[in-house]
Input
Amino acid sequence: MAAPLVVDVVIPARNEEESLPLVLGAIPRDAVRTVYVVDNGSTDATAKAAVQGGAQLLSEPTAGYGAALLRGVNELQTLARRPDVVVFLDGDYADEPAELPWLLEPIRAGMADLVIGSRALGEAEPGALALQQRIASRVATTMIRAIYGQRYTDLGPFRAIRLPALIALGMSDTGHGWNIEMQVKAARGGLRIAEVPVSYRRRAAGRSKISQTIRGSVASSYKIIFTILRHATAR
Output
């Protein structure tokens, strides 16, 4: 019988004091070893909420979604016993943490190195995904299929990946190009990739720092297209 997977979770969080307790409370702790919350320069009580919720608190003062995730990945590499798999999950409670085992199953079965939680294949609450998000995702996944031959349906942040495979990708994006960089590099690198349907709801509190502002949406769309094309020409 194969040894059980050691799974750690990394959650980037910036001013998520209201939603973070909901996220931490819904994670199936029997499926994971440690939950790391990376406080990305919050000005509220996000750090306190992380500790009270039983998470291991890390700090990344340099603003940036990717910067926070890189901080978490770097921490995992310092451990005497590294996890087999790392799960990435946002701190806004838009994804359903209880569905985490669904992402692990293809990896556990030896069928995938990277599993994307697809909101397009799952149930999305009305209004949870802005129109610009849907359009950007459709354009991006179409471009990736045309250039790299890999079929994706979503760029969702809820994902699981084998840690050795993640390290080999050489992730470097410190902003909101992190997810698309991972998916492009995974396609280029020949990783076994799977998608599973996941639920998606309106964020628990506040509004998205990216998708619900025109400036953020335009910047995010530009970054997605730029990242796809940049890696298409990289050697």
